[in-house]
Amino acid sequence: xxxxxxxxxxxxxxxxxxxxxxxxxxxxxxISNTDFFHPIHSDRLDTTKGNPLYSLDxxxxxxxxxxxxxxFDEFSPDGKHFLxxxxxxxxxxxxxxxxxxxxxxxxxxxxxxxxTIPSLGQYTLSGDGQxxxxxxxxxxxxxxxxxxxxxxxxxxxxxxxxxxxHIRYPSLSKDNKRLAYVKENNVYILNLSTKKETQITLDxxxxxxxxxxxDWVYEEEFSMSNGLRxxxxxxxxxxxxxxxxxVKEFSMDLFPSGELYPKQEHWKYPKAxxxxxxxxxxxxxxxxxxxxTAKTNSEKDQYLPRISWSQTDESLxxxxxxxxxxxxxxxxxxxxxxxxxxxxEEKDSAYxxxxxxxxxxxxxxxxxYTSEKSGYNHLYLFDYKKKKEFAITKGxxxxxxxxxxxxxxxxxxxxxTEQSTVEDHVYTVHLNGKEKTQISTPGFNYSxxxxxxxxxxxxxxxxxxxxxxMQHRIKKLGSHWARDIELNTTxxxxxxxxxxxxxxxxxxxxDSISTSYPDKDNAKKIIPLNAWxxxxxxxxxxxxxxVLMYVYGGPGINTVRNQYxxxxxxxxxxxxxxxYIIVSVDNRGTGRRGAAFKKSTYLQLGKLETLDHTxxxxxxxxxxxxxxxxIGIWGWSFGGYMSSSAIAKSGNVFSTAIAVAxxxxxxxxxxxxxxxxxxKPSENPIGYESNSPINFxxxxxxxxxxxxxxxxxxxxxxxxxxxxxxxxxxxVSYDSEVYPNRNHGIGDRAAGIHLxxxxxxxxxxxx
Length: 767
Known about the structure:
Blueprint: E1 4-5, E2 8-9, H1 10-19, H2 21-25, H3 56-61, E3 74-75, E4 81-88, E5 91-98, E6 104-110, E7 122-125, E8 131-140, E9 146-154, E10 159-172, E11 178-183, E12 186-191, E13 197-199, E14 209-211, H4 216-221, E15 228-230, E16 236-243, E17 249-254, E18 263-268, E19 278-285, E20 291-293, E21 302-309, E22 316-322, E23 327-333, E24 340-347, E25 358-360, E26 366-371, E27 378-383, E28 388-391, E29 399-406, E30 411-416, E31 425-430, E32 437-438, E33 445-450, E34 456-462, E35 470-476, E36 482-486, H5 489-497, E37 503-509, E38 528-534, E39 545-551, H6 566-577, E40 581-585, H7 595-598, H8 607-621, E41 626-636, H9 638-649, E42 656-660, H10 671-678, H11 685-689, E43 703-709, H12 718-730, E44 735-739, H13 749-766
Parallel strand pairs: 39-40, 39-41, 41-42, 42-43, 43-44
Antiparallel strand pairs: 1-2, 3-4, 4-5, 5-6, 7-8, 8-9, 9-10, 10-11, 11-12, 12-13, 14-16, 15-16, 16-19, 17-18, 19-20, 21-22, 22-23, 23-24, 25-26, 26-27, 27-28, 29-30, 30-31, 31-32, 33-34, 34-35, 35-36, 37-38, 38-40
Helix pairs in contact: 8-9
């Protein structure tokens, strides 16, 4: 059911937000005791009925409170079958299953082929179905990467080869003749016919030289880790080479149970303004055995965040960013000489985001990519031979992700915000920009994965409401055929039986301060901000209610989504059952509203975001049914930074704040992320100092709970230590909770239960 907002339907509102901010800003934000919390059409449950709400312990102990996962079977390389696994006792096997009929087609792998059963872990099937690569006994490297033991199975001859030791990124060449991998920071190639292992690099060394992988900061901030790329023919292997020798080390103590002395971990972590690794791209020729270095001017202070081969072996594409990350270049590198030719470039007055939205079209001289150069992220077709470009999509809305290409009908598949800024929907469009079709239904947020060849796709969709839904299907592109995988009907009915608080999507006014990013339409204007409100299930408009705001607020990231929220959804509903109104707002700087909205926080990260949340809190405080003296805010990571800034800078508005794993001064964080938005500390000292909570602890008047894991390799415990020292110096009372040996997610079950119980007690006692 759609909620109406001040006479505008919800869908119309979010469409207008994307299409014409000016039109919306002329609508005054009028809030009263009745219409603010009671839309004309509401998903509110009957407050006189419903089962007793779950307990706080149930959130962690009762799996029936959560929807069942998708359990999508892996698509086979031909895109026409599922690759299914079955296990009988210790034996396991893989077989192909027809997607539409579910008939078993053939057995691909059977552990009974071998005297010793291969360990069951992760596995990858080669494109032609001849080889299976298995990985097991994984060991963590950084937050996302790992090493593992590995084996390769020739599915035709039914022979298995084990790779000695722990390796990373086993990668089959496209001709299935070789397997490349990384071992102890060096690159190796195994000839699959002769079983001969060749070491390609010799200089790999921990915390010094990395070959075939990337360093901590590239993995974290450029969302990449595998540094190996086979050419289309398998004749060349391109790989990354990182020289970390000049990067400063960070260390942290771990406290193993039963040990008298701590264990210390060391790794290279370049903080804001500090030296980066020198990065090169090397190309190995399998025919000659020689390795050349791509001529990317690696001696410069720059980044090489993506490499990928074009349609043939003729060119390796290399993306390059300057240190400020506002000048992007795409080069084509010749693999025999290393000579690089500039194909495309883009400059921005703020920054340019790196994505995986680059697709080389087979049997052509063109590729598809996305850019924000029009003010909104859109798809472009570029012919690199003719140097001609065509805008495939246009408009005041955003393309979120390029999902793939269905060559059979010349169709691109992408997700975007044309339907709504709080729901990602899925579209198809021809390369000429015509016949654009929305293939998703309004009222849900969608996540889609396209099968090879683009014949089928998996679809997961969900809602954020008192009647939450989470549904998973397999569908056929360009057809009405679909198969339900898991609709979670029982779970949805269980949620509906609870007396959950109604959720409403609305907008609030931003603060009116101007921005630094060029935007003549929005400068010094009040801008509508997307928000959701979760009401108590027994809301009484004659009573005063406390408010808890939930914030992330970081660049390009949204919390106001019509998407099921998992554990936090259940916890927020639990707090709502205690009489709290829960509110989340997408401040300026968040995504899905265009470049000007997202980049408005450039060079002053945290300033407008804090002002916007303060403005919303003040608007909430004017509502008769809100207790203006009991408005709190909580967040994790960037959200913890935001909640810390809010109570430090607006202590007269926020009486309570919880910060989990917060950044407290941007000089403590890594340089790729921080400098993207603030530049170096020496280049923008005001931007750093005027927006760091540790400089404003004198403003903390209320209740502040600071939580951190001591083994956080992302946002270091150093941030909280500095915040505590600043509060001690200011004579500020505070509460804290420390989780030894826990990382940024504080993810183990015992610590998670402890953390949420601690936050719950704090809120119930202090807010």
